[in-house]
Specification:
The protein contains five helices and two strands. By secondary structure, it is mainly α. The chain has one domain. 26% of the residues are buried. A hairpin with a 2-residue loop joins β1 and β2. α1 packs antiparallel against α5 and α2 crosses α5.
Length: 103
């Protein structure tokens, strides 16, 4: 475990950069992680982040297919919003663990 500072807040992360405690997350932390990932967050991005966090809290396994069927975004939109590894990037920004379905 390592400590990282995002948006002036110290958070605990694993060796891959994923937060280990969702209760340390807030929008400023998410924005700072998004900036590190090269993503400028908009309303649709935050809707996806909210969905991911809700699924994580309910212990629902995440997949790209499930996100595409969520009604929040289509798979194509998901790839557009979070290019080059959308589920990894979106999960990291959301402050949740890396999904098992991600390599």
């Amino acid at each position: 475990m390592t400590e990282r500072i995002y948006g002036g807040i110290c958070v605990m992360c694993n060796d891959q950069g994923y937060m280990t405690q969702l209760d340390q997350w807030n929008k400023e932390v998410g924005s700072a992680i998004a900036q590190e990932e090269g993503i400028e967050m908009g309303d649709k991005h935050w809707q996806v982040i909210d969905y991911l966090q809700e699924q994580c809290r309910n212990e629902v396994p995440l997949t790209i297919r499930k996100i595409g069927k969520s009604g929040v975004v289509t798979i194509k939109e998901f790839y557009t919003l979070f290019p080059n590894g959308p589920l990894k990037k979106a999960s990291r920004i959301a402050g949740i663990p890396k999904p098992v379905s991600c390599i």
